[in-house]
Known about the structure:
Number of strands: 0
Order of helices and strands: HHHH
Distance between the termini: 42 Å
Largest sheet: none
Strand content: under 5%
Helix content: 55-70%
Number of domains: 2
Amino acid sequence: MKLRQQSVSDWVALGQLIVACVFMAGAAQMSFGSLQKPGPAVTPFIFASILAICSVLTLLKGPKDAEPMPRGEARRTVIVVSALALSYPVALPWLGFSISTVVLVGLVAYSLKMPRHQALLLAIISVGISYLLFHLLLGVPFPGGLVGF
């Protein structure tokens, strides 16, 4: 496998594969719990595994599918979204799940040209659904941070 120099998808996939490995290593140090009561390692491990699989599939695709490196505004968007994704796990312990996720989802949506109020609404709904599904229904604990959930 050779990284194509002008292919942004290869470089992003490689970066995401590294992030996925870091998340899986971190999750492996936490408790997985049981089927009846999943531990805090379950969610990050599942998402990191999916990210790793998608990254490897992207890296394995043929050169005819390679995307050229974006220019101008598109390049800025790639950089902003990548920086937000990399800063998210750093912010989780301090800001907690709710604030970190609202900021991440809201800023990514806004970076992708979604109107400001729609980006904020999407972020709040994303946190609400995640809280209901994972915390209330499955009992997965979230990083507390400033507001406790």
